[in-house]
Design brief:
single chain; alpha+beta; Alpha-D-Glucose-1,6-Bisphosphate, Chain A, domain 4; eight-stranded antiparallel sheet; 8 strands; 21% helix; 46% strand; globular; disordered N terminus
């Protein structure tokens, strides 16, 4: 993991799955419900996704301690199995908007995901680097099943 800038998180994660499976995990509500959120015992309560440029998403999830989180945003660039970009906002931090870029780079039966979360800010209550790394571990476990 590297930081791309002072308030940018950059993570590369290699998945033992094709880009199409990673793409579906990011873009299909039924699949995102199976892995989203950094708490290993957390649970997605609701996921609404209109995956197209200008489309919106909203995901509500609950940690094992009962804390509920809600994130939302607007899709900007949608290139199936390759590139997905969107804005990111927490309901608990109104007016603070960041930006996510996901690049999927296939290599045989594996896929390298390059993930960047930019403009996360210095005052956010969220530990983005740890949270996303934990979230991607959950995604990897789900893909193995």
């Amino acid at each position: 993991m590297n930081t791309g800038g002072n308030d940018t998180i950059f993570i590369e994660h290699k998945f033992n799955a094709g880009a199409d499976r990673i793409w579906k995990a990011w873009t299909e509500p039924l699949l995102i419900r199976q892995w989203f959120g950094s708490d290993p015992d957390g649970k997605v309560l609701d996921a609404e996704m209109d995956v197209r440029p200008g489309g919106r998403f909203e995901i509500t999830f609950k940690d094992s301690d009962g804390t509920v989180h809600n994130c939302s945003g607007i899709y900007k660039d949608v290139q199936p199995n390759s590139r997905l970009t969107f804005t990111w906002m927490w309901k608990s931090e109104p007016g603070v908007q960041s930006f996510v870029t996901i690049l999927l780079l296939p290599n045989d039966s594996n896929t390298m995901m390059q993930f960047e979360h930019a403009n996360v800010g210095y005052t956010s209550a969220h530990n983005y680097a740890k949270g996303w790394k934990d979230t991607f571990r959950k995604l990897e476990e789900r893909l193995v099943k």
